[in-house]
Write a structure and sequence with these properties.
Layout lengths: L7 H14 L10 H25 L8 E9 L4 E7 L4 H17 L7 H20 L3 H22 L4 H27 L9 H6 L4 H18 L8 H8 L2 H24 L3 H28 L3 H21 L3 H32 L10 H4 L1 H14 L6 H14 L6 H30 L18 H19 L2 H4 L3 H12 L2 H6 L4 H6 L19
Antiparallel strand pairs: 1-2
Helix pairs in contact: 1-2, 1-4, 2-3, 2-4, 3-4, 3-10, 3-13, 4-5, 5-6, 6-8, 6-9, 8-10, 8-11, 9-12, 10-12, 10-13, 11-12, 11-17, 12-13, 12-16, 12-17, 13-15, 13-16, 13-18, 13-20, 15-17, 15-18, 16-18
């Protein structure tokens, strides 16, 4: 059999799910065999996706690759249709890495280990399915399957208020899923043909009013997952109560599903409505950045501070999506990958600190740098990456987003200046709350409320390995961004061209003073990727 004929993506998605079903059959009383089994499955799946992409994925091709399409439930029009392109491939690899490390991070789980590792593997499959699904019903099915393991992981293995946090999570995300279903079915049944194929849906002609309503529905649904203010309030509670492996997956993968879906659905499938909503996304991105940074500074709980930091950093994704430039969209994708690595490392290290101190309250810590010097060094490295220190991946992603919106010929100068200045305020606040966090936890005199033994084991080899697996790509991308950008450069060019081609018609149809102030007529150029058609004529 030729390698091109092997159903690579189907194997990658189903391997963790099928393996999770076999866990009840494994003879194991203490959970030691189960944890090795779960780690082995995760490693095998990660190795499989690396092999498949290395031998069968072409970086210079912007179209879908490794395409598989099989009838699944013909009566419902449901097909098993999966494929990857430059947008989904790096996120699939990110999912594989974060989930594998999260399973390794859960080495000390002794409460119901069979159920825990079974849920982790099932969630792993569903997340991969979200990023590669090309059928709307399949996408929705994977999106919903992923919610159940997350809910159970928080409600069973979380902190003191875990049930409240888990219930809040499931209410927010399940309610948001209704908007996906309604908007998706509206698109599927629109026109003369009924189809759930996402490529077909993107080629249909919709009325402007219909497209705006569908776009708004998707924005609410994916905005909860991203999350976008004011749909974010579930995230700090979920992070505050989730275990370290759960927080790694929440911040490293789940938030990226929202950003990915916004690009895949709202830009690719609804470009006309995106022209109306793009300034709104830019404004919401600024709000996320400033609001998240301000709220992070006010938190005394270590994980809640990192949770609000995630809200702020995902604001850059919104600005990049709204920029209408190749470098801005490329920056948005890089920011998702970069933040996934950085947030996973910080939440893992917060779990390491909690195991030693048995508290997440920073005002009850202090002086930990003396007794945990290696943890302190690793936490400092992760924080430097989060505050966008040059040489780290966070710097490259945020810089590309800034350049994308600054060089955009779509918005007026005044609008761009406001967006850039307010975003810069958030960038200035980021080192304040992160360095303050380091000071409270690791510097100064040890709190009298923190009763510790004279000897505190510092970060262990397993924990050091997990952190290194995240910090190495963070630094590597920081010094050589092409490591990741080359996987989706061609796709970013296509996305920018696809989004911009509708702007000339849109601008002529907008008599309102608001959009005349936000948008301007760019200069005519040879390529639609470089500039818009002159809309002033």
């Amino acid at each position: 059999m030729n390698t091109i004929e092997i159903p690579w993506l189907t194997a990658i998605i189903l391997l963790p799910l099928m393996a999770s079903l076999a866990i009840p059959l494994i003879p194991d009383k203490e959970g030691k065999t189960v944890r090795w089994y779960g780690l082995g499955v995760a490693l095998a799946d990660f190795a499989l996706m690396i092999y498949a992409f290395w031998h069968n994925y072409d970086f210079h091709n912007s179209s879908f690759q490794l395409v598989e399409n099989y009838p699944w439930v013909p009566q419902l029009g449901l097909n098993w249709s999966v494929a990857v392109d430059g947008l989904s491939m790096p996120l699939v690899l990110l999912t594989g890495l974060i989930n594998t490390l999260a399973i390794f991070a859960a080495w000390k789980v002794t409460n119901k280990p069979r159920l825990f590792y079974g849920l982790m593997l099932a969630m792993y499959s569903a997340q991969l399915g979200v990023f590669v699904a090309q059928d709307l019903l399949l996408f929705f099915l994977m999106w919903e399957i992923e919610l159940v393991p997350v809910y159970l992981l928080i409600s069973i293995w979380g902190g003191q208020n875990r049930r409240y946090a888990a219930t809040k999570f499931i209410i927010y995300t399940a309610a948001a899923s209704i908007f996906i279903l309604v908007a998706g079915f509206a698109m599927a049944f629109s026109g003369d043909t009924v189809s759930f194929d996402m490529a077909t849906l993107g080629m249909k002609n919709y009325s402007q009013a219909f497209e705006l309503l569908v776009y708004a529905g998707f924005l609410i649904a994916f905005g909860v997952k991203l999350p976008i203010f004011p749909l974010h309030t579930w995230l700090p509670d979920a992070h505050g109560e989730a275990s370290a492996p759960g927080s790694m997956i929440l911040a490293g993968v789940l938030l990226k599903m929202g950003g990915y879906a916004l690009i895949r659905f709202n830009i690719e499938m609804l470009p006309n409505a995106h022209a109306t909503f793009a300034p709104v996304l830019a404004i919401l991105g600024v709000v996320n950045i400033v609001y998240g940074a301000c709220c992070a500074f006010a938190q005394t709980n270590l994980k809640r501070r990192l949770a609000y930091s995630s809200i702020a950093h995902m604001g850059f994704v919104l600005i990049g999506i709204a920029s209408y430039t190749e470098i801005g969209i490329s920056g948005a994708v890089l920011q998702m990958v970069s933040h996934g690595l950085i947030a996973a490392s910080l939440f893992f290290l917060s779990g390491v600190t909690y195991e030693r101190t048995h508290t997440l309250m920073m005002d009850k810590m202090g002086g930990m740098g003396k007794v945990m010097p290696r943890t302190f060094a690793l936490f400092t490295a992760g924080s430097m990456a989060s505050l966008a220190l040059p040489g780290m991946s966070g710097f490259v992603g945020e810089l590309m987003v800034f350049l994308g919106i600054a060089t955009s010929d779509v918005y007026s100068s005044s609008f761009k200046v406001v967006v850039l200045l307010l975003s810069a305020v958030g960038v200035i606040l980021t080192p304040i709350y992160l360095l303050s966090m380091l000071r409270q936890v690791f510097y100064g005199k040890q709190s009298e409320e923190l009763h510790l033994d004279k000897f505190i084991p510092d970060v262990k080899p397993r924990e050091l390995f997990i952190t290194a697996c995240l910090l190495v790509p963070i630094i590597g991308i920081g010094f050589y961004p092409k490591l990741i950008t080359q996987t989706y450069d061609v796709k970013a060019v296509e996305l920018a061209a696809h989004a911009r081609q509708v702007l000339p018609v849109f601008a002529h149809q907008q008599p309102s003073s608001l959009y005349s102030r936000l948008f301007k007529a760019p200069t005519l150029a040879a390529s639609p990727v470089e500039s818009l058609v002159n809309i002033s004529e």
